[in-house]
């Protein structure tokens, strides 16, 4: 029986699938300094990690029986991927498993900004009993997402998942992406099945000018530059709102704060920050920001899918 060490854990669904396919799965967390010894002693042939455990050159060299390293999630900075592949190991991650989770967070943030939920949640506990009428007046001019234009910058996996939900919410979706040539997406309508919807493509300037809401789904840029900085913010519709659930740095935080203060932007929602895990005080305390601590991918369903996706890849690897 082939033995798998899921050192940072694996979902119950993933574990079950592996066990049903004849693998032994151990989820005990072995400290990094004992990992090589335990892998060799027990004879593990696959190592599954999330972000905590690392699989460096030294481990790859020292564990000759290991033929598969799996990362539950996207980034593989904790694995020497090229070296492992050079040595003939299979290295896999699960890039698609959390796209729907991030997309749902974005929709939550769009509704939040449209109806001032972040501000209402801050003020109701302290003023709800004494200033009810004033707060009611303050939050009375919300808007609906239906009929508004959502600009998606980066129409890859998460961009498309977000576009599907936004179309479902009655929004017009326009997208800018210099690489992807996607022109339509498949929606799964409960009780109806699959329906194809066109994606309107535009350039960045057009997207900035036309969108009531903008959401970014791009990777950290190779040169570290911001995709949305001062110049881009100026080109946005006055009073528009912005979501960054991609990576800290793709929106310039300083320029964003200025745009919020001047009223150029109404609101912004951030799940990712410069200097994680210690975002700036100005960002954390700004009343026009709706904030979450990098939880875009963190749903129970995504954890299940990550486990099952890894299980499928292990089954394919050892089955071949
Ligand atoms: P993806 O590779 O499927 O799509 C990214 C798209 O962005 C590609 O189509 C690419 O052509 C496009 N792109 C790159 N640079 C661009 C630019 N300057 N302007 C416009 N488009 C550009 O990636 P994905 O799975 O959709 O993930 C997108 C990003 O989301 C990831 O790189 C990651 O940084 C982030 N992410 C965040 C969380 C979270 O917890 N908040 C979770 C998962 C991923």
Topology, number of strands: 14
User: Under the CATH scheme, which architecture of the largest domain would be assigned?
Assistant: 3-Layer(aba) Sandwich
**Count of DSSP H/I helices:** 13
Counting structural domains, the number is: 2
Overall body shape: elongated
Q: Which regions are unreliable across 5 or more consecutive residues at pLDDT < 50?
A: none
Report the major sheet.
7 strands, parallel
Which strand order does the major sheet show? 10-7-6-11-12-13-14
Summary tags:
320 residues; Rossmann fold; seven-stranded parallel sheet; five-stranded parallel sheet; binds nicotinamide-adenine-dinucleotide
How would you describe this protein?
With 320 residues, the chain is α/β, with parallel strands linked by helices. It has two domains: 3-97 and 300-319, Rossmann fold (3-Layer(aba) Sandwich); 99-291, Rossmann fold. The chain is 38% helix and 19% strand. It has 13 helices and 14 strands. It has helices spanning 12-20, 35-42, 57-62, 81-86, 99-114, 117-127, 132-138, 157-168, 204-210, 230-235, 253-262, 281-284, 300-319; strands spanning 3-6, 24-26, 46-49, 68-71, 90-93, 149-153, 172-176, 184-189, 193-198, 200-201, 213-216, 240-244, 265-270, 289-291. A seven-stranded parallel beta sheet has the order 10-7-6-11-12-13-14, sandwiched between helices. Strands 2-1-3-4-5 form a five-stranded parallel beta sheet. Strands 8-9 form a two-stranded antiparallel ribbon. Helix 1 links the parallel strand 1 (3-6) and strand 2 (24-26). Helix 1 runs parallel beside helix 13 and helix 5 packs across helix 8. The longest helix has 20 residues, at 300-319. It starts with a strand and ends with a helix. The model has no long low-confidence stretch (mean pLDDT 96). Residues 74, 95, 98-99, 102, 153-159, 176-180, 217-219, 221, 227, 245-247, 271-272, 294, 296-297 line the site of nicotinamide-adenine-dinucleotide.
